[in-house]
UniProtKB/TrEMBL annotation:
TM ranges: 29-52, 64-84, 90-108
Species this protein is from: Streptomyces filamentosus
Region (Disordered), start-end ranges: 1-22
Alphabetical UniProt keywords: Membrane, Transmembrane, Transmembrane helix
Name this protein carries in UniProt: Uncharacterized protein
């Protein structure tokens, strides 16, 4: 049989066992810069939610409470973008995306006190 011959010789049909090569540095940079406006929009929405909650608490004489729902949604969206970049083999852009997510969430969670 042909299948036995393929297994004996160690050859594989075209397309099987091919390694997925990463994208070039230039394409990673372009993809990350292209997604930066979306990152700014998502991070800015979370920043606005934290600021509005803190402003309202300060004017009502209450303690500021961190809006966890908004932070989780924004962090989840930024992480989902990073996972999509990993799936598309833009690994350097994905690392930058995950780094950006960590920085944004750290800054926003520390600004509430």
């Amino acid at each position: 049989m042909d299948l036995d011959r393929d297994m004996d010789t160690g050859t594989r049909p075209a397309g099987f066992g091919r390694r997925r090569e990463p994208r070039t540095g230039t394409s990673n940079l372009l993809v990350f810069l292209g997604l930066l406006p979306l990152d700014i929009l998502v991070g800015g929405g979370a920043w606005l939610a934290v600021g509005m909650r803190g402003w309202a608490a300060a004017h009502n004489g209450e303690d500021a409470v961190l809006p966890m729902t908004e932070l989780l949604w924004s962090g989840g969206m930024l992480a989902a973008i990073g996972l999509a970049l990993c799936w598309g083999r833009f690994w350097a852009a994905a690392v930058a995306q995950f780094g950006l997510t960590v920085v944004v969430l750290a800054v926003l969670s520390s600004s509430s006190g």
